[in-house]
Write a structure and sequence with these properties.
Rossmann fold; 8 strands; two-stranded antiparallel sheet; alpha/beta; single chain
Length: 291
Protein backbone atom coordinates (compact mmCIF):
# COMPACT_ATOMS: atom_id res chain seq x y z
CA UNK A 1 0.00 0.00 0.00
CA UNK A 2 1.35 3.44 -0.97
CA UNK A 3 2.35 5.65 1.95
CA UNK A 4 0.45 8.93 2.14
CA UNK A 5 2.22 11.93 3.67
CA UNK A 6 0.30 14.90 5.03
CA UNK A 7 2.97 17.60 4.66
CA UNK A 8 2.04 20.73 6.60
CA UNK A 9 3.44 24.22 6.12
CA UNK A 10 3.10 24.99 9.83
CA UNK A 11 3.66 28.75 9.47
CA UNK A 12 0.93 29.01 6.82
CA UNK A 13 -1.75 27.70 9.20
CA UNK A 14 -0.49 29.76 12.13
CA UNK A 15 -0.55 33.00 10.12
CA UNK A 16 -4.08 32.30 8.91
CA UNK A 17 -5.15 31.98 12.55
CA UNK A 18 -3.25 35.14 13.48
CA UNK A 19 -5.27 37.17 10.97
CA UNK A 20 -8.60 35.58 11.87
CA UNK A 21 -11.11 38.26 12.89
CA UNK A 22 -12.01 36.34 16.07
CA UNK A 23 -8.38 36.37 17.21
CA UNK A 24 -8.11 40.10 16.55
CA UNK A 25 -11.07 40.70 18.89
CA UNK A 26 -9.32 39.09 21.86
CA UNK A 27 -8.30 41.34 24.73
CA UNK A 28 -4.78 41.42 26.13
CA UNK A 29 -5.91 40.08 29.52
CA UNK A 30 -7.37 36.90 28.04
CA UNK A 31 -5.30 33.73 28.21
CA UNK A 32 -3.39 33.54 24.90
CA UNK A 33 -4.30 30.04 23.72
CA UNK A 34 -6.65 30.87 20.83
CA UNK A 35 -4.09 30.07 18.14
CA UNK A 36 -2.90 26.94 19.94
CA UNK A 37 -6.37 25.40 20.20
CA UNK A 38 -7.46 26.37 16.72
CA UNK A 39 -4.25 24.94 15.26
CA UNK A 40 -5.17 21.65 16.92
CA UNK A 41 -8.71 21.98 15.59
CA UNK A 42 -7.37 22.47 12.04
CA UNK A 43 -4.98 19.57 12.50
CA UNK A 44 -7.65 17.08 13.54
CA UNK A 45 -9.80 18.25 10.61
CA UNK A 46 -6.92 17.67 8.17
CA UNK A 47 -6.18 14.24 9.62
CA UNK A 48 -9.82 13.21 9.22
CA UNK A 49 -10.00 14.61 5.69
CA UNK A 50 -6.73 13.18 4.34
CA UNK A 51 -6.30 10.01 6.48
CA UNK A 52 -2.53 9.97 5.96
CA UNK A 53 -0.01 7.29 6.82
CA UNK A 54 2.07 9.94 8.56
CA UNK A 55 2.02 13.66 9.31
CA UNK A 56 5.13 15.81 8.61
CA UNK A 57 5.53 19.41 9.82
CA UNK A 58 7.77 21.89 7.97
CA UNK A 59 8.99 24.94 9.89
CA UNK A 60 10.68 28.19 8.94
CA UNK A 61 13.97 28.74 10.75
CA UNK A 62 14.44 31.90 12.81
CA UNK A 63 16.80 33.24 10.14
CA UNK A 64 14.88 31.78 7.21
CA UNK A 65 16.07 34.47 4.77
CA UNK A 66 19.77 34.06 5.57
CA UNK A 67 20.87 31.79 2.74
CA UNK A 68 18.89 33.62 0.07
CA UNK A 69 20.10 37.02 1.31
CA UNK A 70 23.64 35.91 0.51
CA UNK A 71 22.47 35.98 -3.11
CA UNK A 72 20.04 38.92 -2.87
CA UNK A 73 20.34 41.11 0.28
CA UNK A 74 16.86 42.65 -0.19
CA UNK A 75 15.09 39.29 -0.13
CA UNK A 76 11.91 39.74 1.98
CA UNK A 77 13.46 42.92 3.33
CA UNK A 78 10.12 44.72 3.92
CA UNK A 79 9.11 42.11 6.47
CA UNK A 80 11.83 43.33 8.83
CA UNK A 81 10.92 47.02 8.64
CA UNK A 82 9.17 49.01 11.37
CA UNK A 83 5.61 47.89 12.15
CA UNK A 84 2.54 49.85 13.23
CA UNK A 85 1.63 49.76 16.96
CA UNK A 86 -1.43 47.56 16.39
CA UNK A 87 0.71 45.09 14.45
CA UNK A 88 3.20 44.93 17.30
CA UNK A 89 0.40 44.21 19.80
CA UNK A 90 -0.96 41.47 17.55
CA UNK A 91 2.50 39.95 17.13
CA UNK A 92 3.14 40.00 20.88
CA UNK A 93 0.06 37.83 21.42
CA UNK A 94 0.46 35.61 18.38
CA UNK A 95 4.14 34.76 18.04
CA UNK A 96 4.62 33.21 21.50
CA UNK A 97 1.76 30.86 20.58
CA UNK A 98 3.50 30.04 17.28
CA UNK A 99 6.56 29.00 19.29
CA UNK A 100 4.41 27.08 21.77
CA UNK A 101 2.78 25.07 18.96
CA UNK A 102 6.01 24.29 17.13
CA UNK A 103 8.36 23.65 20.06
CA UNK A 104 6.06 22.32 22.80
CA UNK A 105 2.59 21.25 21.63
CA UNK A 106 3.55 19.09 18.64
CA UNK A 107 6.33 17.22 20.52
CA UNK A 108 4.05 16.87 23.55
CA UNK A 109 1.42 15.21 21.35
CA UNK A 110 4.07 12.73 20.24
CA UNK A 111 4.93 14.02 16.77
CA UNK A 112 8.57 13.56 15.76
CA UNK A 113 8.53 14.43 12.05
CA UNK A 114 9.06 18.16 12.66
CA UNK A 115 11.75 19.58 10.40
CA UNK A 116 13.59 22.86 9.90
CA UNK A 117 17.08 23.90 8.81
CA UNK A 118 18.87 27.11 9.88
CA UNK A 119 18.87 29.73 7.14
CA UNK A 120 16.17 28.00 5.10
CA UNK A 121 12.39 28.17 4.78
CA UNK A 122 9.58 25.70 5.31
CA UNK A 123 9.22 25.72 1.50
CA UNK A 124 12.66 24.13 1.22
CA UNK A 125 11.80 21.43 3.76
CA UNK A 126 8.58 20.65 1.88
CA UNK A 127 10.35 20.50 -1.48
CA UNK A 128 13.04 18.21 -0.08
CA UNK A 129 10.44 15.81 1.34
CA UNK A 130 8.66 15.72 -2.04
CA UNK A 131 11.91 15.23 -3.95
CA UNK A 132 13.17 12.43 -1.72
CA UNK A 133 9.92 10.44 -1.38
CA UNK A 134 8.87 9.89 -5.01
CA UNK A 135 7.02 6.66 -4.27
CA UNK A 136 4.68 8.32 -1.74
CA UNK A 137 1.43 10.16 -2.24
CA UNK A 138 1.99 13.64 -0.77
CA UNK A 139 -0.60 16.27 0.18
CA UNK A 140 0.97 19.67 0.89
CA UNK A 141 -1.07 21.97 3.16
CA UNK A 142 -0.08 25.54 2.32
CA UNK A 143 -1.22 28.87 0.87
CA UNK A 144 2.03 29.48 -1.02
CA UNK A 145 1.81 29.53 -4.81
CA UNK A 146 5.58 28.92 -5.00
CA UNK A 147 4.66 25.29 -4.25
CA UNK A 148 3.02 24.92 -7.67
CA UNK A 149 6.40 23.86 -9.07
CA UNK A 150 6.22 20.75 -6.84
CA UNK A 151 2.97 19.39 -8.29
CA UNK A 152 3.24 15.94 -9.88
CA UNK A 153 1.01 12.93 -10.41
CA UNK A 154 1.65 11.99 -6.77
CA UNK A 155 1.96 15.44 -5.16
CA UNK A 156 -1.01 17.80 -4.75
CA UNK A 157 -1.77 20.90 -2.68
CA UNK A 158 -4.55 21.29 -0.13
CA UNK A 159 -5.21 25.00 0.27
CA UNK A 160 -4.85 25.86 3.97
CA UNK A 161 -7.56 28.56 3.77
CA UNK A 162 -10.22 26.93 1.63
CA UNK A 163 -9.43 23.25 2.26
CA UNK A 164 -9.64 22.67 -1.49
CA UNK A 165 -7.36 20.34 -3.43
CA UNK A 166 -5.24 21.65 -6.31
CA UNK A 167 -3.65 18.99 -8.50
CA UNK A 168 -1.18 18.90 -11.36
CA UNK A 169 -4.10 18.63 -13.78
CA UNK A 170 -5.82 21.63 -12.18
CA UNK A 171 -2.62 23.63 -12.69
CA UNK A 172 -2.29 22.62 -16.35
CA UNK A 173 -5.93 23.49 -17.03
CA UNK A 174 -5.54 26.89 -15.35
CA UNK A 175 -2.19 27.97 -16.81
CA UNK A 176 -1.60 25.80 -19.87
CA UNK A 177 1.97 24.93 -18.82
CA UNK A 178 3.57 22.15 -16.78
CA UNK A 179 4.07 22.76 -13.03
CA UNK A 180 7.84 22.44 -13.44
CA UNK A 181 7.69 25.57 -15.61
CA UNK A 182 6.31 27.65 -12.73
CA UNK A 183 9.85 28.35 -11.54
CA UNK A 184 10.54 29.89 -14.98
CA UNK A 185 7.56 32.22 -14.50
CA UNK A 186 8.97 33.34 -11.14
CA UNK A 187 12.53 33.63 -12.45
CA UNK A 188 11.49 36.02 -15.21
CA UNK A 189 8.66 37.87 -13.47
CA UNK A 190 10.03 37.85 -9.94
CA UNK A 191 8.02 37.26 -6.77
CA UNK A 192 6.15 40.17 -5.23
CA UNK A 193 5.54 38.53 -1.86
CA UNK A 194 9.26 37.81 -1.43
CA UNK A 195 10.30 41.23 -2.83
CA UNK A 196 12.24 39.59 -5.64
CA UNK A 197 12.18 41.88 -8.73
CA UNK A 198 11.79 40.46 -12.20
CA UNK A 199 12.23 41.96 -15.63
CA UNK A 200 10.49 45.37 -15.48
CA UNK A 201 7.10 45.66 -17.15
CA UNK A 202 6.49 41.94 -17.65
CA UNK A 203 3.60 40.26 -15.87
CA UNK A 204 2.79 36.67 -15.09
CA UNK A 205 0.18 36.22 -17.83
CA UNK A 206 2.54 37.44 -20.54
CA UNK A 207 5.36 35.19 -19.33
CA UNK A 208 2.98 32.23 -19.49
CA UNK A 209 2.12 33.16 -23.08
CA UNK A 210 5.84 33.21 -23.82
CA UNK A 211 6.29 29.75 -22.32
CA UNK A 212 3.32 28.48 -24.34
CA UNK A 213 5.08 29.86 -27.43
CA UNK A 214 2.19 32.22 -28.11
CA UNK A 215 4.37 35.33 -28.48
CA UNK A 216 5.94 36.11 -31.85
CA UNK A 217 9.68 36.74 -31.83
CA UNK A 218 9.14 40.43 -32.64
CA UNK A 219 6.92 40.96 -29.56
CA UNK A 220 8.49 43.40 -27.08
CA UNK A 221 8.15 40.96 -24.17
CA UNK A 222 9.78 38.20 -26.17
CA UNK A 223 12.65 40.54 -26.99
CA UNK A 224 13.00 41.62 -23.35
CA UNK A 225 13.22 38.05 -22.08
CA UNK A 226 15.84 37.24 -24.69
CA UNK A 227 17.79 40.44 -24.02
CA UNK A 228 21.24 39.59 -22.65
CA UNK A 229 21.09 42.46 -20.15
CA UNK A 230 18.49 40.51 -18.12
CA UNK A 231 20.39 37.22 -18.22
CA UNK A 232 22.08 37.73 -14.82
CA UNK A 233 18.78 38.80 -13.19
CA UNK A 234 17.02 35.65 -14.39
CA UNK A 235 19.90 33.43 -13.29
CA UNK A 236 19.92 35.08 -9.85
CA UNK A 237 16.17 34.65 -9.49
CA UNK A 238 16.40 30.97 -10.38
CA UNK A 239 18.62 30.42 -7.36
CA UNK A 240 16.05 32.21 -5.17
CA UNK A 241 12.82 30.63 -6.43
CA UNK A 242 13.71 27.06 -7.34
CA UNK A 243 12.73 24.64 -4.56
CA UNK A 244 14.44 23.27 -2.61
CA UNK A 245 17.23 25.80 -2.18
CA UNK A 246 20.65 24.40 -3.05
CA UNK A 247 22.12 22.58 -0.07
CA UNK A 248 18.80 21.70 1.59
CA UNK A 249 19.29 18.36 3.40
CA UNK A 250 17.28 15.17 3.12
CA UNK A 251 14.89 14.60 6.03
CA UNK A 252 14.38 11.08 7.35
CA UNK A 253 10.70 10.41 7.99
CA UNK A 254 9.51 7.99 10.66
CA UNK A 255 6.48 6.46 8.97
CA UNK A 256 5.36 4.80 12.23
CA UNK A 257 5.03 8.08 14.13
CA UNK A 258 1.59 8.88 15.60
CA UNK A 259 0.32 11.19 18.36
CA UNK A 260 -0.11 9.32 21.64
CA UNK A 261 -3.02 9.02 24.07
CA UNK A 262 -0.80 10.28 26.85
CA UNK A 263 0.27 13.32 24.83
CA UNK A 264 -3.23 14.29 23.75
CA UNK A 265 -4.53 14.00 27.33
CA UNK A 266 -1.62 16.05 28.62
CA UNK A 267 -2.31 18.89 26.18
CA UNK A 268 -6.00 18.89 27.07
CA UNK A 269 -5.24 19.04 30.79
CA UNK A 270 -2.33 21.48 30.80
CA UNK A 271 -4.07 24.00 28.56
CA UNK A 272 -7.57 23.33 29.92
CA UNK A 273 -9.02 22.65 26.47
CA UNK A 274 -12.53 21.54 27.43
CA UNK A 275 -13.43 20.04 24.00
CA UNK A 276 -10.46 17.66 24.29
CA UNK A 277 -11.17 16.82 27.95
CA UNK A 278 -14.88 16.23 27.35
CA UNK A 279 -14.56 14.19 24.15
CA UNK A 280 -11.12 12.64 24.37
CA UNK A 281 -11.98 9.57 22.29
CA UNK A 282 -13.07 11.74 19.36
CA UNK A 283 -9.88 13.80 19.48
CA UNK A 284 -7.71 10.72 19.82
CA UNK A 285 -9.25 9.11 16.76
CA UNK A 286 -9.27 12.37 14.80
CA UNK A 287 -5.62 13.21 15.45
CA UNK A 288 -4.63 9.69 14.42
CA UNK A 289 -6.78 9.78 11.30
CA UNK A 290 -9.01 6.93 12.49
CA UNK A 291 -12.54 6.70 11.10
Amino acid sequence: MQNRILLIDTSAILHILKHNKDFKRLKLNERPTYIIFNFLFRLQYLMRKVRPTVCVFAKDSHNEQAERRKIFPDYKIKRTKEKKPEQIVLDDIAYPQFTEVEENILPMLGYTNIFKTPGLEADDVIASVCKNNPSCEIIIVTTDEDMYQLLTNTVCILNARRSKYFTKQDFIEKYGIEPIDWKKVKSVGGCRTDEVPGIPGIGEKTIIKYLRQELPSHHKTYQKIKNKKYFDLIQRNKKLVILPFQGTPTYEINFNNRPTKKGIKRVGEEYDFLPIKKDFNYWYKALRGIK
